[in-house]
Amino acid sequence: MAATFADFSTLDGYQLRLPVFEGPLEVLLRLIERSQLAITDVSLVAVTEQFLTYVERLGDAPPAVIAEFMAVGSRLVLLKSRSLLPRPSATEDEDQQDDLVHQLIAYRAIKEASLQLAEWDAKGDGSFTRALGAIAPPDGPTVPKVAFHEANLLARALRRRLSIAPLARQMVASRPVVSLREMVERVLTKLHGKGAINFSEVQHGCADRNEVLTAFLAILVLIRRRSIDAAQSELFGEIHISRNSDEPAALSGALASFSADD
Amino acid sequence: MTDLVLDTIPFADAHHANGTNTHQGQLAFEIPGEAPAGQELMALVEALLLVSPEPTTVDYLANGAGVCPAEIKAVLNEIEADSNRGWIIVRYGETVQLSTAPRFAGHVRRFLGLERETKLSPAALETLAIIAYEQPVTRSEIEAVRGVDSSGVLSTLMTRGLVEIVGRLATVGNPMQYGVTPEFLKHFGLTSLDDLPPLGLVDGRDISTALQSAIAAAEPPAEEVDEQPAP
User: Fold this and answer.
1) Crossing angle for the helix pair A180-194 and A248-261, nearest 10 degrees?
2) Would A227 disulfide with which of A54, A254, A257, B222, CB 3.0-4.6 Å?
3) CA nearest A6 in B: which residue?
4) Paired strand residues for B100
């Protein structure tokens, strides 16, 4: 008998028989226990013949299964041949022999432990925890709650609210915008006091990027009007601004002409 | 003005530290009232475990209850010792979780409309036993003990959530190491891995050394570099 069969024949009338092969260690353990032997190399040698007989009958088993049996079988044969030959030095062989013995002992211990697990499994006394997400609401879109009120009640509530205090007028604060004209004024004022300034001084007085742009435009406008001279010694360097010395009147007239042009 | 404000902050902090508010450095919130004790602390810990959607830790419970971790541990032991409760404390690693008492498994299944899981095969149980007692273990170590190919069984156990990959062994090919999951404990109604009975003596020999030497005999073959189970 090469294999036992797990019977699933009751599944919806299908006849399904899957072979479940015992492993070589399982077979070896069974042979030793049937002979009521302890797990030693001596008893392994004693059951070698029976094991090989079992392997011979494995004819139709999958090659992988046969290979596993052959691996154990060859170790048994090695053990047996060693036991038959006189051993010159015992110490070297001890480890070799103990390998299979150790493996069998370990396997038997695990087999026994697995029987305990099987008992618990069959009893089915599992423990259960709360399914995840049972407490917290799901992350999906929440359905708005609908409140039902009579229209006249709502109207009365509104009237009452209005009677308590007038609704405050909504104030919208908007950022003050500096016009080009204002900026020209600002630049000229600075220039008037000092005679020469750097663009960075103008820029320093600007509240945001837009004002800086306006300031730069103002400089360009003043240059076009020949009110000021501007010089930049290097790319991205400081812009030096001074009065246009050729036309002293230009500066004072700049503002007036600017507003006229605009 | 700004400098002045900045200057006062460390002073305010120092004042705060000397105040009454920092007897527990890690506390994120003020605990209302005094820290509970005795029966009340037990009830509180149960309440916290109940609302915890996933396994929590002793430290979290201590933080929530406003007591020290040692007190939480004592209370957890108390809850565990009381067999009249409808729940057990499942411990896995550092985590603790409230879980239904195994003796009510049938009722809980009926209540939740759950089918009984199919029973595990002997091969699956053997593999589980090896992993549970010797984790973390690699597939070749499992196969060294069982003497047969275990890839199919392993993937079945992974699918059922009883076993998971817990790391990689620092050796040739870095094979994956497997360990059992909290679901393993719950499946068998265990409160912790300590509930597993110790491996008995076989023929008067110590099992652990036999297991260790069997596992040590597992030399990863060259093809083990890719630990994917064969289809």
Assistant:
1) 170
2) A254
3) B121
4) B87
d(Cα B212, Cα B206) in Å, to the nearest integer? 10
Q: Is the CB of B189 less than 8 angstroms away from the CB of A127?
A: yes
- ipTM of predicted assembly, 2 dp: 0.70
Q: Which of A27-36, A117-126, B205-214, B218-227 has the lowest mean pLDDT?
A: B218-227
CB contact under 8 A, A125 and B147: no
Q: Which among A21, A19, A20, A47 is positioned nearest to A104, based on CA atoms?
A: A47
Of B191, B197, B194, B195, which Cα lies nearest the Cα of B91? Answer: B191
Distance between CA B43 and CA B65 in Å, rounded?
11
Q: Is B130 helix (H, G, I), strand (E, B) or coil?
A: helix
Q: What is the mean pLDDT of residues A12-16?
A: 45
Residues of chain A found within 8 Å of residue B51, distances taken between Cβ atoms: 135
Q: Is the pLDDT of residue B37 over 80?
A: no
Q: pLDDT exceeding 90 applies to what percent of chain B?
A: 16
Question: In degrees, to the nearest 5, what angle opens at C-alpha B87 toward C-alphas B82 and B93?
Answer: 95
Q: Which of A64, A112, A128 sits opposite B186 (nearest CB)?
A: A128
Chain A residues with CB under 8 Å of B53 CB are: 130, 132-136
Reduced to 3 states (helix: H, G, I; strand: E, B; else coil), residue B73 is helix
Q: How far apart are CA A52 and CA B24, in angstroms?
A: 71
pLDDT at B8: 36
Nearest to B161 by CA among B117, B196, B197: B117
The whole-model pTM stands at 0.57
Q: Which residue has better confidence, B85 or A259? A: B85
Q: Which residues of B, range 3-62, sit inside 8 Å of A by Cβ? A: 50-51, 53-54
- Distance set, CA B93 to CA A38, B10, B63 (Å): 37, 41, 19
**Which site among B115, B118, B181, B213 would you substitute to test the A interface, given the most A Cβ atoms closer than 10 Å to its Cβ?**
B213
What are the residues whose beta carbons fall under 8 Å from the beta carbon of A23, sequence distance 6 or more?
A68, B146, B147, B148
